[in-house]
């Protein structure tokens, strides 16, 4: 599966503030020798989990890096919360690497702990290489730039083309049509589900809320404002909760043997997912190759054209680096140079954030599992351009953990999703206060 799948935050408890800092990160102190830029040749260390990254970095070291006397060494790491915790621990001792691969939702945590440097002065021209909603995730709504987008997970609608035809269903273009399709299928085949609502992967719900216009974390001066239970997210929660309660869709979690069997046998005939879904379907439903098709995510209004994001990561420069400018140059090259991005796609199976790299090369032909849909990546690229801006905060892990617990129980019991959302809001706010962050009511 593409590395965007690593965005499935298996939420563990991160000490969000290994000594909570102010909302806005500032540079390392002047008396920190490690923060002083070195002159002459630079040797950089890059922590990453991406497969094949050593081969990609070799292209830099033998080409642009050699010319600029900037050498990069790859250190493979675990992903998700494990890596964030390791980075914060290393930073506390002023020993963080020069560069790190960081999921978008982890950036506020790292910035709030003064672990990431503002590289805006060294990456001029990079912004235009990415969709606006993608680039925004690395700026946190400010003029500062804390990372360069690497890979993304624009959300899409996947469906069994053969079974939609068999049951006389039309691909939904709005969420209202989606609900009607689920109900129509139940009438025609009571034992078949359009899809399931799963509470074991928080990124799915976060992406759906993002598409609806949710802003889960924003700032007011030096304070965080949590809006997890905002109107947009309430709309999403009520929609899915209603479908579960009436039995129009299934309520079992994803990634289980039971879920795999439902996909493979046609008991579940659609899946709201992201661009990396073909990799999952290849494993979960091997007998259905060539029977699926991909379409844009249903919209809340017929006039809308926006998608959410489920997954993705960036390349960031740490405040501990003594060669921030050199590190920023490498980060920009890695994620915008055509040769570099093509190599990452080939070696790591990523779906690149750079818009020019989303067709052609490794994406000139559709995924093998979707050999019947020749325009798969052309369509995916158009969808990716419509990615909505996100709004992450410094304790995403707490929000995600609470989601898994509260929504997991609500889905199982077919109870009120609105109450689960309020629990998620309250727990997130309480944690921010506990960690010492200012919180605007």
Q: What's the layout of helices and strands?
A:
Blueprint: E1 42-48, H1 53-62, H2 64-68, E2 70-76, H3 80-92, E3 99-103, H4 107-112, H5 132-135, E4 148-160, H6 161-166, H7 175-188, H8 202-211, E5 217-220, E6 223-226, H9 231-246, H10 257-265, E7 270-274, H11 277-284, E8 292-296, E9 309-317, H12 324-336, H13 338-348, H14 376-384, H15 396-413, H16 417-434, E10 439-440
Helix pairs in contact: 1-13, 8-9, 15-16
The CATH topology of the largest domain is D-Maltodextrin-Binding Protein, domain 2
The major sheet is characterized as: 7 strands, mixed
Residue-averaged pLDDT:
90
Report the helical percentage.
Answer: 25-40%
Number of discrete helical segments: 16
Element string (H = helix, E = strand): EHHEHEHHEHHHEEHHEHEEHHHHHE
User: Strand share of the residues?
Assistant: 5-15%
Within CATH, the superfamily of the largest domain carries the name: Periplasmic binding protein-like II
- Overall geometry comes to globular
Based on secondary structure, the structural category is alpha/beta
* Oligomeric grouping of the chains: single chain
What is the rounded distance between the termini? 41 Å
- The CATH architecture assignment of the largest domain turns out to be 3-Layer(aba) Sandwich
Contiguous low-pLDDT stretches (5 residues minimum) are: 1-36
Question: Could you give the count of β-strands?
Answer: 10
Number of domains: 2
Rg (C-alpha, Å): 22 Å
């Amino acid at each position: 599966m593409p590395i965007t799948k690593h965005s499935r935050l298996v939420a563990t408890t991160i000490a969000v503030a290994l000594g909570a800092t102010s909302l806005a990160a500032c540079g390392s102190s002047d008396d920190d020798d490690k923060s002083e830029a070195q002159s002459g040749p630079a040797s950089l260390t890059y922590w990453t989990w991406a497969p094949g990254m050593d081969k990609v970095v070799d292209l830099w070291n033998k080409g642009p890096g050699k010319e600029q006397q900037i050498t990069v060494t790859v250190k493979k790491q675990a992903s998700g919360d494990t890596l964030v915790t390791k980075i914060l621990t290393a930073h506390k001792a002023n020993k963080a690497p020069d560069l790190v691969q960081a999921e978008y939702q982890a950036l506020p945590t790292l910035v709030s702990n003064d672990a990431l440097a503002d590289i805006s002065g060294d990456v001029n021209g990079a912004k235009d290489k990415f969709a606006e909603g993608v680039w925004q995730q690395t700026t946190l709504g400010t003029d500062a730039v804390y990372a360069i987008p690497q890979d993304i997970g624009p959300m899409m609608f996947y469906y069994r083309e053969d079974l939609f035809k068999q049951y006389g269903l039309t691909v939904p273009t709005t969420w209202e049509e989606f609900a009607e399709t689920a109900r129509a299928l139940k009438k025609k085949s009571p034992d078949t589900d359009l899809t399931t609502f799963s509470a074991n992967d928080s990124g799915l719900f976060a992406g759906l809320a993002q598409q609806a216009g949710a802003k889960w974390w924003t700032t007011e001066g030096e304070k965080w404002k949590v809006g997890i239970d905002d109107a947009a997210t309430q709309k999403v929660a009520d929609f899915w909760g209603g479908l579960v309660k009436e039995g129009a869709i299934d309520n079992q979690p994803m990634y289980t043997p039971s879920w795999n069997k439902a996909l493979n046998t046609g008991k579940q005939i659609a899946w709201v997912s992201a661009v990396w879904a073909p990799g999952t379907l290849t494993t979960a439903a091997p007998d259905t190759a060539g029977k699926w098709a991909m379409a844009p995510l249903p919209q809340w209004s017929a006039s809308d054209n926006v998608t959410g994001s489920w997954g993705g990561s960036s390349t960031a420069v740490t405040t501990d680096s003594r060669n921030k400018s050199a590190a920023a140059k490498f980060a920009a090259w890695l994620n915008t140079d055509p040769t570099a991005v093509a190599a990452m796609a080939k070696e790591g199976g990523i779906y690149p954030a750079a818009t020019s790299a989303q067709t052609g090369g490794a994406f000139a032909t559709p995924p093998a599992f979707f050999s019947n849909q020749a325009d798969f990546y052309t369509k995916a690229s158009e969808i990716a351009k419509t990615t909505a801006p996100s709004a992450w905060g410094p304790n995403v892990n707490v929000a995600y953990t609470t989601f898994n617990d509260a929504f997991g129980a609500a889905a199982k019991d077919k109870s009120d999703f609105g109450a689960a959302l309020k629990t998620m809001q309250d727990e997130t706010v309480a944690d921010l206060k506990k960690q010492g962050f200012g919180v605007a009511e």
